[in-house]
Design goal:
The complex is a heterotrimer of chains A (630), B (150) and C (258). Chain A has 630 residues and is of the alpha/beta class. Chain A contains 25 helices and 20 strands. Chain A has five domains: 20-140, 3-Layer(aba) Sandwich (Glutaredoxin); 174-371, NADH-ubiquinone oxidoreductase 51kDa subunit (Rossmann fold, 3-Layer(aba) Sandwich), CATH 3.40.50; 384-467, Ubiquitin-like (UB roll) (Roll); 472-560, Up-down Bundle (de novo design (two linked rop proteins)); 574-629, Alpha-Beta Plaits (2-Layer Sandwich), CATH 3.30.70.20. Chain B is α+β, with helices and mostly antiparallel strands. Chain B has a four-stranded mixed beta sheet, covered by helices on one side. The two termini of chain B are 27 Å apart. The chains are: A alpha/beta (630), B alpha+beta (150), C alpha+beta (258).
């Protein structure tokens, strides 16, 4: 298969633009995992049914995620020379109405979210223009959720079809891979990536060009490049979205990287819990092969292909050496480093492992140059980062922000602050390897160094917001039980050290803790950090250390006063009904699983503490705030 | 079934690194990893049986026991945890009468906890087979289970 | 040859040596459980940690995978190293309360008791420290693979598949030989060798044709004999003692030239 040429690519681009910006109505339904879970498949089917029923010539396509997951299903509708209109929380009935209005040449005016007049497409020099108009519909970047975002990696997610290579090419895709392979040397590529200041987006933030340089220098008949798509941090799903919404961006990044390093074999290691991402990647790989962008290429002598390896449910396989062991057919037990994978990795050969998002940044860096890329961010942290903003925050979803934005801006301006008027207490970054940053530090800049100074880490991008009803002892117990469960068990500090630490936290959360145990916790944390074999163990104590540092008062309340201030730890709380507020509506009795709540209708109800299992169903149900946590 | 196994073994002959894919395919076919099947794999693909057992017990995706007709996965990711996932687990445990990782006696349901399905915006999340349910509360549980009882 | 500094004194390291090998060779005390000459560094026991002062990434690191390159300076008894070692040994005492060897090792470094309780959450018994040597010797060196890790994390144990008697074990005893914690029990009883720890896997012992002594399992003898049937035929039927006597007899009764 001859490698694709720039001339051929131009032809496909023209074809792709006809699909992406057709001379007819185009309806794109957000069909990422979140959209599907919210009912988007049904909406998509209705559009097809209605189009068929009315023999309408419309383009109905799948698209990825626009990031505002809390508003799914999201649907965008475009017509020639008019702005793209985005609808939110679209139901099947809305879909029927949208079509009906289209038939009448009108715009359905319910559930309208925002419009896009010109796509901020960072690869395509000419830009993508939809059209101007609809003065009373707010623009995409006027929406508070999107205002402070800067979509570079997610520039086309939710707009192009993730299952069409032609559309990817239409918006500038693969042009840079071809340009790079035909006119640049590996060293020139490394210089651009180095000057851009790209750091690994998987968590450690290691300078990407430095890592590539080591593998490039290593003399070997075989070199591998691997995409680490084993995104295991609970609460983080950036990579899932990147693969589901724009898989070709990842492939293009790997093609460029393979050329720079001198590799002919790429592997994408995806966790098995992401079936849609796997499916979309498979389709994309087949399409790339069909166009000669992957596989044996006769021109330039550059042969490179990618295959997928699935994980099998082990968080530790996100660690480089464990990931390699897994690909080699072994259990994911990490191996001592040195030797580092860049020197001796998969099958003993030089191997470069980078996170999905790191690879996704490569095409845009090569397209726009190092100076452009490094103009965003701080002196030490260049570019943007995609975060999954989740938890006790009003607006939940995937946000892409420039490095250097403050936590406050992300949580309050983008995220809209707390829910149900609750006060935000902390934000957890870096998953189980990270830490809890208190609200008092929200003026901090989001960059690698600042987050590290707090005792947390940037991590892969999970950002979980916690409010006054989150118990920091409980949250720490949660993270430790996660790392304990996912520990491979090879080395004793992680295998048993974490378990003993968890035992102490369990004692504290049931009111059996002693102040001396806090010292023991710190001592164990220090040993586990310095003696563990791999990053899982070395960072597992971080949630403990940060909560002890910033929320010691909560620990002391549990130990000294046998109280859980947030009202979470079951053994330390009890529920009762406030006689003044209770209206006797009987709602709590209907939801109580053990019959602990009782009372006559329209009379004050009570809770039998002996029967109460503290499931909090009554607390959540009561509309009059009559159920109190003691 | 015998020929399906033969096909899998044939496909992976001479590819020792891909043994995990073999186990994944076997579990797809049988619903779990039967001892007899693994013994055959060990023989035919020249992989130590102890290695296969080691892999089967290391990776959470594998199970050595047959599972129920419907697998109920409750997500215990961070976002789901802060939004009440533990209570969902407790409620399902109570309704089904089993602990997580166990299967009901009538082999209808298996209850599993999973760390992050990746739908954090819909927390707390629950998955039954391929169906994802979001924004779960305890009172929604009986209705969801009823969808699969028929 | 490279010069490295250990605890302030210069030592010569041979080509390709790792720091741990230099320490051992120079008689400098350093504990370890999972290191075995001939096997690549495994990094599971964490006891051979030293502190790097110069010539490498500063801080604590295991010495079993630290190249002894020119300019390396390490310390084996800094307060941090001693502290980490002590806590690790406390963890080991709680992990394997039944192992005398582990108790001796801990005592040597001043750790007689442990704060931590023994949590029996796995099928591995109270002597195994999960160093992995038995697995690696059985699997990588002998290519028998009768045992392997089972489970993950705190429920890890080293076991036979499905915790049943092994059909591939050859009863060579290499697992017991390399175990640093004396966690493996093998009993020779009459004409059988019982691998107690491996769920009483039982193998027949080979009887010497001459002395009737039982010197190895039939399986081991068969495997060795199969390597070269002509050259090794005495190995098949005679115990080591009987072989020595036979060989000696050849010399004594060598015919003289008349």
């Amino acid at each position: 298969m001859k490698m694709m040429t720039l001339a051929h690519l131009q032809k496909i681009k023209t074809k792709g633009l006809k699909s992406f910006l057709p001379h007819k109505v185009r309806i794109a339904v957000g069909l990422g995992s979140c959209g599907i879970a919210a009912g988007a498949e049904g909406v998509y089917n209705v559009f097809h049914e209605e189009a068929k029923k009315n023999t309408l010539d419309m383009s109905i396509t799948k698209t990825g995620c626009l990031g505002f997951c809390g508003e799914e299903p999201l649907v965008n509708v475009s017509r020639p020379r008019t702005p793209l209109v985005i609808y939110r929380q679209v139901t099947e009935d809305d879909a029927r109405a949208i079509v009906s209005q289209i038939m009448g040449n009108k715009l359905y005016d319910k559930k309208v979210f925002c419009k896009i007049e010109e796509m901020e497409n960072f690869i395509q020099p000419e830009g993508i223009k939809y059209g101007t108009g609809y003065a009373d519909i707010p623009h995409f970047y006027e929406i508070p959720f999107y205002k402070k975002q800067k979509k570079i990696v997610l520039r086309e997610s939710g707009l192009i079809s993730p299952e069409s290579i032609d559309e990817y090419i239409a918006v500038g895709g693969y042009a840079n891979a071809l340009k790079v392979i035909t006119s640049m040397s590996p060293d020139e590529i490394l210089k651009v990536v180095g000057d851009a200041g790209l750091r690994g987006r998987g968590g450690a933030g290691f300078p990407t060009a430095t890592k590539w340089g080591i593998a490039r220098k290593s003399k070997s008949d075989k070199k591998y490049i691997i995409c680490n798509a084993d995104e295991g941090d609970p609460g983080a799903y950036m990579n899932r979205n990147e693969m589901e919404s724009d898989p070709h961006m990842l492939i293009e990044g790997m093609v460029i990287g393979a050329f720079a390093i001198g590799s002919d074999e790429g592997i994408i290691y995806v966790r098995t819990e992401y079936p849609l991402a796997i499916e979309r990647l498979k389709i994309a790989l087949e399409q790339a092969r069909a166009y000669g962008l992957l596989g044996k290429n006769s021109s330039n002598g550059f042969n490179f292909d990618i295959h997928i390896v699935c994980g099998a449910g082990a968080f530790v396989c996100g660690e480089e050496t464990a990931l390699i062991a897994s690909i080699e057919g072994e259990s994911g037990r990490p191996r001592p480093r040195p030797p580092f994978p860049a020197v001796s990795g998969l099958n003993g050969k030089p191997t470069i492992i980078n996170n999905v998002e790191t690879w996704c940044n490569i095409p845009v860096i090569m397209a726009k140059g190092a100076e452009w890329f490094s103009a965003t961010g701080t002196s030490g942290s260049k570019g943007t980062k995609v975060f999954s903003l989740v938890g006790k925050v009003s607006r939940v979803g995937l946000v892409e922000v420039p490095m250097g934005i403050t936590l406050k801006e992300v949580i309050y301006e983008i995220g809209g602050g707390g829910i149900k008027g609750k006060k935000i207490k902390a934000v957890q970054t870096g998953g189980p390897s990270g830490g809890c940053i208190p609200a008092s530090l929200f003026d901090l800049s989001v960059d690698y160094e600042s987050l590290q100074k707090t005792g947390s880490i940037m991590g892969s991008g999970g950002m979980v917001v916690m409010d006054e009803n989150t118990c920091m002892v409980d949250i720490t117990k949660y993270f430790l039980s996660f790392t304990r469960e996912e520990s491979c068990g090879k080395c004793i500090p992680c295998r048993r050290g974490l378990e003993h630490m968890l035992g102490i936290l369990e004692d504290i959360s049931v009111g059996k803790g002693k102040m001396s145990q806090i010292d023991e916790l710190k001592e164990l944390a220090s040993v586990v950090k310095s003696a563990s074999l791999c990053g899982l163990g070395q960072t597992a104590p971080n949630p403990v250390l940060t909560t002890l540092r910033y929320f010691r008062d909560e620990y002391e309340a549990h130990i000294r006063d046998h109280k859980c201030p947030a009202g979470v730890c079951k053994e330390l709380i009890s529920y009762s009904i406030d006689a003044e507020s209770c209206t006797g509506c009987h709602a709590c009795v209907r939801v109580c699983p053990t019959g602990a709540t009782s009372g006559e209708k329209k009379e004050v109800h009570t809770i039998d503490k002996k029967k109460c299992i503290k499931c909090s169903a009554c607390y959540e149900t009561c509309k009059f705030n009559a159920v109190k946590v003691d | 079934m015998g020929t399906t196994l033969d096909k899998i073994i044939e496909e992976y002959q001479g590819k020792p690194g891909e043994i995990i894919s073999v186990l994944e395919k076997i579990q797809e076919v049988y619903g779990y990893l039967p001892q007899e099947v693994l013994k055959e794999v060990s023989e035919k693909l020249q992989v130590h049986l102890s290695q296969l057992f080691s892999l089967a017990t290391f990776y959470s995706a594998f199970t050595l026991k047959p599972r129920g007709e419907h697998i109920v996965h409750v997500c215990l990711g961070t976002a789901c945890h802060v939004r009440g996932a533990p209570k969902i687990v407790d409620e399902l445990s109570r309704l089904l009468g089993i602990k997580p990782s166990d299967t009901t006696e009538d082999m209808k349901f298996t209850l599993e906890t999973v760390r992050c399905i990746g739908c954090c915006s819909l927390a707390p999340v629950l998955k039954v087979d391929k169906d994802i349910y979001g924004y779960n509360t305890m009172d929604k549980m009986p209705k969801i289970l009823a969808n699969y009882k028929g | 040859m490279a010069t490295i500094v250990i605890n302030g004194k210069k030592h010569e390291a041979r080509e390709g040596e790792i720091a741990f090998q230099v320490l051992k060779r120079e008689g400098i005390d350093i504990p370890s459980l999972c290191y075995l000459e001939g096997l690549s560094p495994y990094g599971s026991c964490r006891l051979c940690m030293v502190e790097v002062k110069a010539g490498g990434r500063p801080g604590l690191t295991t010495s079993c995978n630290l190249t002894a390159s020119e300019g390396l300076e390490i310390e084996t008894e800094t307060p941090q190293v001693v502290q980490v070692r002590k806590v690790l040994l406390e963890l080991y005492l709680a992990e394997a309360p039944g192992s005398k060897k582990i108790q001796e090792l801990a005592k040597k470094y001043g750790v007689a008791t442990t704060r931590f309780t023994h949590i029996d959450t796995s099928a591995k018994g109270d002597r195994c420290v999960l160093c992995g040597l038995c697995v690696r010797v059985c699997g990588e060196i002998l290519n028998v693979g009768a045992i392997h890790y089972a489970g993950r994390g705190t429920r890890t144990s080293i076991n036979t598949p499905w915790y049943e008697t092994s059909s591939v074990c050859i009863g060579c005893g290499a697992c017991e030989y390399v175990c640093p914690a004396d966690a493996i029990d093998i009993v020779d009883q009459d004409d059988e060798r019982i691998m107690e720890t491996w769920h009483k896997t039982t193998l027949k012992l080979k009887e010497c044709a001459e002395s009737m002594k039982r010197f190895a399992t039939e399986r081991v003898v068969d495997i060795v004999y199969a390597k070269n049937q002509e050259l090794l035929k005495d190995l098949k039927d005679l115990s080591p003692d009987a072989r020595r006597r036979k060989k000696a007899a050849q010399f004594i009764f060598k015919p003289k030239d008349k």
